[in-house]
Amino acid sequence: MTDLILQYAPSSFDSQIVLLTLIEKNIPFSGVVVDTANFAHIDPNYVRQTSICGVPVLEHDETVTTGTDKIIAYIEETFEGPDLRIGDQEQIDHWITRVMTAHIEELTLATPTYALPFPRMFSRNRLKHEIDIANRLTRDVHDLGEIYREHVRILRHQFRTIGDEWKINDYYRNVGVVLDALELQLKVSKFAAGNDYSLADVYLTAFLARLDALRLGYLWEEEDRPSVFEYAQRVKSRPSFAKVFGEESVPTLFSDAFFMKALLSRLAIPAGLVALAIILVLIF
């Protein structure tokens, strides 16, 4: 039994980055899935334990660490295993920044998929419902009020953003800019920061996996960005990829089952829209 516990959500982009890191470093851990579809991440007991409304959360001995970058730093400083800071340090930091400023969460909420053909309507409805719950908790759970208020601020920003066509299109354009830069880098090195798989590649693996799940994998077709195409095949062949994103991993946001659970779990959506969603899922 390991004393390292990761609380995570399978569909969480940040959780996927931490999972990849732990698996790449061969660090044993116990995983606890937080049911974000049913808003377990804002339950007062969870928030009181973790001091955040979200995932991932790393617990080790009596230390609780939140925030992806802080969790990764803690893992690197505390545990043995393959050195993921290997390679050009400036390049590693550069790619981490590029990935974490690519607005993946907003693109996930706004991009149509087979399971969610009309994402913005459902995403905004879900966000509004979560905002309502968090506002109520702000009033009822006084000692956690500041945490809930900050969470509401983030949710409101997301709500506004996914309704802003200009911003979303700008985020799509930025994805192309990141992929173009990666294409150039991969012409001179096997991986993003050198010839060894590094922390930069952990972040980029999650980045490409998310874009692929959003049906944006055509952006690196072999004839358009051949180096990124080959790179994507290399990172997908790593054992860590199959464990986090493969068919044997837990259901993700992009599976029909997870979508329907999120849709039906305490969402204020009229029955007619739910019926329409079920029909669309069956068709697509």
CATH topology of the largest domain: Glutathione S-transferase Yfyf (Class Pi), Chain A, domain 2
Kindly name the structural category: mainly alpha
Overall geometry comes to globular
Q: Determine the fraction of residues in helical runs and give it as a percent range.
A: 55-70%
Mind summarizing the main beta sheet?
4 strands, mixed
Task: Give the CATH class of the largest domain.
Answer: Mainly Alpha
Rg calculated over all Cα atoms: 19 Å
Architecture (CATH level 2) name of the largest domain: Up-down Bundle
Distance between the termini: 43 Å
Number of domains: 2
Overall mean pLDDT? 89
- Strand fraction equals 5-15%
Total of helices: 13
- Encode the helix/strand succession as letters: EHEHEEHHHHHHHHHHH
Spatial strand sequence of the major β-sheet: 2-1-3-4
Poorly predicted residue ranges: 248-260, 262-269
Walk me through the structure.
- By secondary structure, the protein is mainly alpha-helical.
- The chain folds into 2 domains: 4-85, Glutaredoxin; 89-245, Glutathione S-transferase Yfyf (Class Pi), Chain A, domain 2 (Up-down Bundle).
- The chain contains 13 helices and 4 strands.
- It has helices spanning 13-24, 44-50, 68-78, 89-100, 104-110, 119-140, 145-162, 165-185, 199-213, 226-236, 239-245, 256-264, 271-283, and strands spanning 4-8, 30-33, 57-60, 63-66.
- It has a 4-stranded mixed beta sheet with strand order 2-1-3-4, covered by helices on one side.
- The longest helix is centred in the middle third of the chain and has 22 residues, at 119-140.
- It starts with a strand and ends with a helix.
- Mean pLDDT is 89; it is low at 248-260 and 262-269.
